[in-house]
Structures
1.
Amino acid sequence: MNLKLWAKWIACLFFTFAVAVPHTAKAADYGKPGEPIHLTVAHPCCYAEVWSVFANSGKELWKKYLPPGSTVDYLIGLQGAVVVNQMLAGKADIGYMGDLPAFTATTKTQASDVRIVASTAMSYDQCYVFIVRKDAPEFKDSDEALKWVNGKTVSTPKGSCTDDFVQKLFKRTNTTPESYLNQNIEVISSGFKSGRLDAAAVWEPNASNLVEEGLARRVASGKTIGEQGGGFVVMQADLIKQRPDVVKAWLQAELDAQLWMANPANAKEMIDIVKAKVTGFTDKGLFNAIYGLYPAKDGGNDVRLYLPYTFTPEVMDLVGRGVDFLKANKVINVDKLRDDAIEPSFTQEILKERGLKSPVGLVKAQASN
């Protein structure tokens, strides 16, 4: 991972989404149903909860479903905010992103009508991972670790899902750090190296990579507070309206990708696919990001990814929690998403046709080699 480039992009958080896209995007012409189509798919490189896009692209699963002659390009950014801006600017037709960016994107209708069409995954410990410096004391459980954090220096990229998580974690465990800093992953890594930082909340694969590099240890996760974060597939409304055949085709491939990821026999090949797209991470760090088995006392969970695919009550609860956080932090000015912000019909129809129910699979933790 090019950390200087990461630092440049990570500074663009949710509070500045709309600034980069001041004008309404022109309506796109996606052709007629059945015609070949060229799609541009945007996604972050370094957020493991949307890595089904890597399975789809690496295995070229979409070729089975899109009209013959269709092509796909990928725009890989460093975080969800970049993907949101690409969607709002009309540079991408389909986007993969975390929960807060997805919810935010649907509210920026003055720039582009973007809608959520599927869930990529939910997890207790993808975006919700709390780590402490490597030389912190050994703790018997998360509660003891959070008591140690009192009066210490803590950091996270504010406005992100990690910020939402850590605020709830502190509130529910009565934790009061001396300093709560807004820092990107490069600065957090540097802070652990220099000893200036005591703890941080970061997402996968950064969390596992910092642990693997010997800079930090996991001590808590979303399991500690009983909440999961998630990832989503979003699409341009023009694509949904003009080419329902393409929407359904892509989501068929997305389902195949999730089913393929859930098979433990595919773990090595999955990480090989990710390695070809993502640089700067250790092999073990990438493996542990979605397959790593961490102790329960440190917020570990036997299931690393739940794959709802469609909009279950658990997914909709996440939507409500995320919107509340964004509204409270003045990122959006609505109390709930508009009625058509979420399009559940495609995933529901596909599951019915294929005789499947949600969750379609689980990515279970396993010991690394």
2.
Amino acid sequence: MKLNEIRDNPGSTKNRMRVGRGIGSGKGKTGGRGVKGQKARTGVSIKGFEGGQMPLHRRLPKRGFNKPNAIELNEVNVGRIQQAVDAGKLDIAAPVTVETLVAAGVVSKPRDGVKILGVGELKAKLSFQVAGASKSAVEAIEKAGGSVTLLGAVAQA
């Protein structure tokens, strides 16, 4: 056997059917598309149409609500703040605010403020000026000798 003698098996390949090239080709006139109507035309598809039946995307109920003026807070645990203090990124003497937390790299961007959550342990005596704090976080901060000042109209929860 030589390279110039290599062939596909007989009957393994077929020539491409040329559509819409006259009635003698066997795929002329309508070109395999049936007859008439929107779907016989090119580039048209009716997505989501179920033959007049109410489509699935309209049968299902609408759920949920996106509040247009929702307050988006950064949530930070007291344990993460203690890590920043141990690493020397947060100054113990200065009050802890959104700006100081962004500068220390604890939160990436200020958003609408910071809410302190109570996971972890806080040993440093810090004063917080934040938008919100959970009850467990306030307890942990006051236990360490610190204080919490809530800014704005964010409810304590």
3.
Amino acid sequence: MTVARTICLGFLAVIAVGTILLMMPFSTSNGTWDNLIVALFTSTSAVCVTGLSVVDPGTHFSFWGQLFIALLAQIGGLGYMTTTTFLILLIGRKFDMRQKIAIQQALDRPGMSGSSQVIRSIIATTLIFEITGVLLLLPAFVPQYGWSQGLWLAIFHSINAWNNAGFSLFKDNLIGYQSSFLVVFTVTMLIIFGGIGYQVIMEMYLWLRDRILRKTHNQTFSLDFKVATSTTIILLVIGLVAFFCIEIRNPETFGSLNFRDQILVAWFQSVTPRTAGFNTIDISKMTTAGLFITIALMFIGASPGGTGGGMKTTTLRVLTSCTKAILQGKEDVLLYDRKIAINLILKAVGVLVGSVATVILATILISLTDPRLDFIQILFEVVSAFATVGLSTGITASISTAAKLILILSMYVGRVGVLLLMSAVLGDPRPTRIHYPEENLLVG
């Protein structure tokens, strides 16, 4: 029972419990037992913080069903190991070396020291951001829906935004609030900070604290911070400009809006593919170019240590730095004047190959089970599921049961990670002292 297997089986256990809870009559609005596939799909989507749904969560599920979805998304966003470790800390128990190693692998941390403090800071950060999101969303929802319903809408959407889940209780998602600066600003900020990683947030907090207290020593930002923040900003700007330029002539998305709303919608559409799943326009009405840009942003995803999925921003930067080094004829891969270790490069290549292989296989299988669907729709749905995004062109509810099971598996693989899942299947690698001779090979 390796650490990787513990994490993978833990997510499966949470999905199973969520499926049972969502099937219960008190979880549905009509008071009857829910369909197994619907409950399984919804539970997997919530635990894997995806947001894809085969039913309308706002009308299909009762308050209890919606509460279970929010709790599952919270557990999925924090991660199985973070949640269980926090529960262990609550009851006053100390965790052993095995659990520290599990936390290190689950959070992709360089060391095991200070694990309990890290868990506490993650929980505190989550509560601070989610409560702030609730307070900011209240003025948008309470005047229209009243205090009780408005408060619940604020809580539900704040949890889903921070955890990059993307479930919405509105039939049109957030299209009705596409011109609301308050809703767009709050949701996008929660998405960005939730997906950028806890370590980055903590470093940002320490830097601001030192500036406010006017401490003399200069804080040195880690390489993780520099790569995650710079890559995120670059992708957000590229997405904003690309969507604005491509969709501005499309009357069904941007074309019929005024300039202010076009900027808001373009900004939101640039943020949400970073594994969030909310939308302020009808995704099915986007141009083919807009859909492909969204697919690319979804595949890249968020940053390590955050609540989002995808290939991750750091993986993209390592691979692009490798390409730059080859083009410049250098043997070392550098990022911000730091040499990248060969094991990190191999890991990045493994993540890319595994991710592409999973997307290709799932796309082929759904093309066989549902041949009536367009290729772009299938690819969009598969990448959205694997990268745990939740955006859809509107085909999720109409696909076959076999296709839904394929998407369920894709969401699970995307959440636990390709390499972690393979490690769970194959077991821990055995050390060897055998070294093989080196030989050249024609590449490229």
